[in-house]
Amino acid sequence: MAIIGIDLGTTNSLAAVWREGKSVLIPNAAGEYLTPSVVSVDEDGTVLVGRAARDRLITHPERTAAGFKRHMGTDKTWNLGDRAFLPEELSSFVLRSLREDAETFLKEPVTEAVVSVPAYFAERQRAATKRAAALAGLRVERLVNEPSAAAVAGRVSEGDTVCLVFDLGGGTLDVSLVERFENVVSITAVSGDNKLGGWDFDRIIAQSFCQDCGLEFEGLSRQQKETLVRQAETCKMALTTQEPVIMAVEDETLSASLPLTNEWLIRKSGPLFQRMTVPIQRVISDAGLLKEDLDGLVMVGGSSHMPAVRRYIARFLGMEPARNSRPDTVVALGAGICAGMKARASGLRELVMTDVCPFTLGVNVLNPSNPSRPLMSPIIERNSVLPTSRMGIYQTARDGQEQVEIQIFQGENRYCADNTPLGKLTLAVPPAPRGCQSVRVRFTYDINGLLEAEVLNEREESARLVIQNQDMTEEEVRRRLAELEELKLHPREREASRALSARGERLYAMTVGELRSRVGAALDWFDQELASQEPIRIARAQRQTGRFFDQVEAYLGVLPDGPGEDEE
């Protein structure tokens, strides 16, 4: 049974499947690849999805919903007809439509998918996405970040490179730094803006059109606003290939027209462009790089077609975007590859893709200056490569304390109250003076969003909490936790690393003087790289250290697996 990849977008959604050694886009019932992420409920209760629903945005705005992806994980509702819908319920209709299209195309049932989400989606938004899939009859074990999907589809570039992926869709902006090293594609830093996308440009164009034509946008009827915004979107798309473009609107009460250019758009959309630079600066800073360190710029997402956006970002970074990416479809193609990887398809078994944790995970600690406002102590920092396992050590805060309560939070703020609570656990500790008893708190977090939190006291007693953003059977949880146990081993304990360290220690024993010092320094550096627990850094370190040991052995006249003839 096939596993499909889905790009669930704010404006359009599409699906792909790994077939005959490549990712293939799946057409919908109209023979098109892009299905508008729009849902409408007809007067007889029929649910319409896609282009048919989009056409009703103007004629039946009170029965039609769009842009609901922006509100995933919230309690916002849309009243369509006589029923209210949550964002995940509306998204489930789109996912169901894609699933049915896939079943028609593949001529077999489809029950499992890999779905892409903005890299900056928090746990609540990711959980809502998985609920939407479940409502659509799809089992989704794996969510893939949209820039990761784009990176694996384009493989960013060949060789050892660092590229910035700028993903501007209809409703969200994701910015990621992607490293490629041999067969590993790794996201090293992510940032974004979940409230910035092509929809904002449509609204700015409509409002600015009214302003320049002497009209009051907010005083228009709902249908007139929808008509203007739709017209603004049409003009925005036309500006990708020609300028000027004449925007015109006319009905019983309105009659106006205005020539639009990309320069006009840049001038009117200044605040939106300024917001774009914030996540770009943040990911570059988080990665400890400068703009000059980037090897390439990849722009994806339908809104990155806009010449105004491409010019602005190219000018800001001082480089032109790659011309071989397909902004509309690259995420879906990448999701299709990820689906093939999950199915263990031949040709993909050697490809490794890592993601990062978009938000910091930590625990509450005492705030000495204001005990009523506990501080958050990070354990897994944002942009840590996933999967990962990290540990923090904490002391008791009061004399005679008999238990610790570990509260788990997600976010970047100093105070726990300003972050998102994820759960809590308690563990008994022997009564003792303050600070004399300690506990170890370990977080183990996998690429599918499963977080295991453990706390151990000095008597090796423990408590454990498993936090998951989806409904899983007990057997699935047990299997996933067994896989996480491997993460708790330090990379230096794994076979390839142990063998390389043993090789270095043997060479250290065989050498003297300056060469011995250099071998020792290489071993120290290799150990530091292992401590990062980041696959790309470790792979690079293994290759670099191995090459150095090859040179040492060549100088000594020995074979890698034992002494040379002159040493027997």
Notes on the protein architecture:
The protein is α+β, with helices and mostly antiparallel strands and 568 residues long. Strands 1, 2, 3, 4, 10 and 11 form a six-stranded mixed beta sheet that branches. Helix 8 (262-268) crosses helix 10. Mean pLDDT is 85; it is low at 487-492 and 561-568.
Unreliable segments (pLDDT under 50, ≥5 consecutive)?
A: 487-492, 561-568
Number of helices: 15
Structural class: alpha+beta
How many DSSP-defined strands?
27
Integer average pLDDT: 85
As a percent range, the share of strand residues is 25-35%
Shape: globular
Tell me the span between the first and last alpha carbons.
59 Å
Main beta sheet: strand number and arrangement?
6 strands, mixed
Radius of gyration: 27 Å
Q: Which oligomeric form is depicted?
A: single chain
Helical residues, percent: 25-40%
Short summary of the structure?
The protein has 568 residues and is α+β, with helices and mostly antiparallel strands.
Detail the topology: elements first, then pairings.
Elements: E1 3-7, E2 12-19, E3 22-26, E4 35-36, E5 38-41, E6 47-49, H1 51-54, H2 56-59, E7 64-66, E8 78-80, E9 83-85, H3 87-106, E10 112-117, H4 123-135, E11 139-145, H5 146-154, E12 161-168, E13 173-181, E14 184-193, H6 198-212, H7 222-238, E15 245-250, E16 255-260, H8 262-268, H9 270-286, E17 296-300, H10 307-317, H11 330-342, E18 352-356, E19 361-365, E20 375-380, E21 385-386, E22 388-395, E23 403-410, E24 420-428, E25 438-445, E26 451-457, E27 462-467, H12 474-485, H13 495-510, H14 513-531, H15 535-556
Parallel strand pairs: 1-10, 10-11, 12-17, 14-18
Antiparallel strand pairs: 1-2, 2-3, 2-4, 5-6, 5-7, 8-9, 12-13, 13-14, 15-16, 18-21, 19-20, 19-23, 22-25, 23-24, 25-26, 26-27
